[in-house]
Amino acid sequence: MMDTTRKPFLGLGVERRYRLIYKPVVLLAGLLPLAWMTCALFGWLGFSAGVDPVKFLELENGKTALNLILLTLIITPVRQLAGLPHLVRLRRMAGLLAFFYAVLHFTVYVVLDLDLNWRMVGADIIKRPYITVGFAALLLLVPLAVTSTNRMMRYLGRRWSRLHRLIYLIAALGVWHFYWQEKIDVREPLIYALILAILLGYRVARSAWLRRLLASLRSDPCDGSPRRA
Amino acid sequence: MALRIPRVIPSQITPPETYLNRRAFLAGAFGAGAAATLGSAAAAVIPAQAGAALGYRYDAAESVDALVHAPDQNEKPNTWEQITNYNNYYEFGVGKTDPAEYAGELQTRPWNVAVAGEAEVTGSFPLEAFMKPYALEERIYRFRCVEAWSMVIPWVGFPLAQMLKRFKPTSRAKYVAFETLYRPSQMPGQREPILQWPYREGLRIDEAMNPLAFMVVGLYGRVLPNQSGAPLRLIVPWKYGFKSIKAIVRIVFTETQPETTWSQAASGEYGFYANVNPDVPHPRWSQATERRIGNPFFHERQATLLFNGYANEVASLYKGMSLHRYF
Prior knowledge:
heterodimer, A: mainly alpha, 9 helices, 75% helix, 0% strand, globular, B: 327 residues, alpha+beta, Sulfite Oxidase, Chain A, domain 2, seven-stranded mixed sheet, disordered N terminus
């Protein structure tokens, strides 16, 4: 694998490249859906939210959140397969943007869809399984967002990565929520489910492969240690 | 059955220009001369043309002003823009704007309606001949989708009962079934196996004979645009929108309950009756309230009414029936 991190780019080291270029670019790209939705809502630049802007905002915020959650899960395979270890520095940004859109999605649902009728919100969360599932995903995102700072990472140490494995569950709940609200045409949620299955399958396959590799190294007779009978 | 006195008259809601031209339009809209313009989504008001010769009667004085079913005074009809750009019409795609985008391709002339089954008069009728005997009237109805949104829509058409009686259904005709056109070349959604095509719907004969059940050929005093179900669709205002089948090509009187598309697709979620009922939730969501399209932000939700507010007119059809069981 070629080490791309040493090559100077615009005279910047990898640290500053991420801090000054890549992260701001990801942030701006991540805010594009918000800009687009805002334009659509107000009919700016020829965009339109259509006849039912509430449904439009609900759906687009939800899908953007889900897209960003999947993006956080693509980072690890890409950095491993493409040899770009520093890519992980962009994951927090993607994760926080996902949380941002998930909160917007929920806010549109509570404020615009249900007109701030909290009794109905409560009834929906308890009685409507697809909303229960979506709400659970949102709640689980909160601890991840709260513990996303450098200080929290240091404080939690090894527990941090264990906690953040919740993202696998959150992604599954999110896709399930998307699938379950469809009236009949589930093709789009199934595409999301397929992508998620590939991303999670990659991790399972890789850890199985690493375990086998480790086991074979341990039992390798060439390392001079006596083999157990 | 006495029809309610209108509280909203069409002159209050239709653009004056359109309103003044209604008779002219309705006299000529279904004539051969107007055929060329029928496919256009813009659907400008069509002046009286050769069609008048076909003899479509539009007794405005009586029909419109006396027979309008206006919902509550506070309920304003939705705009043409809203009604024709937010459609569930899977024959043209599952997106709400797909029908507005793709339905223009559909050729609605020539159009034949086949009538079959338990009736004395059966056969295949060209639309013009099929429509000829009826005086058109305007009715402003609530429209409630099973997805829990709603609109108020000024339809133009004639009572379904009038039409059905003309075919002299026999005593064995307990139900009437309807079928949508199947033409994948012009209905791109039919190339996808999302539903079992062609779309099928049905009513019990006494439901079909209820004066509220309405055959629609126009909207806002204009020819019905393709995305709204042109050239001929059903409107059953006390039932969820999916009962109100579009682009009808076949009507069959049957002795047994006909298969209907949505109950075939998901029988646990969509029944044959599909009466609007706030107390019978969809298995996955509540039907207690609805969002009225076009209402201002923060005031979109409103309570859903039993039989969509038409209980006085239709509740007697279901006396002694469990509305939970026969959902």
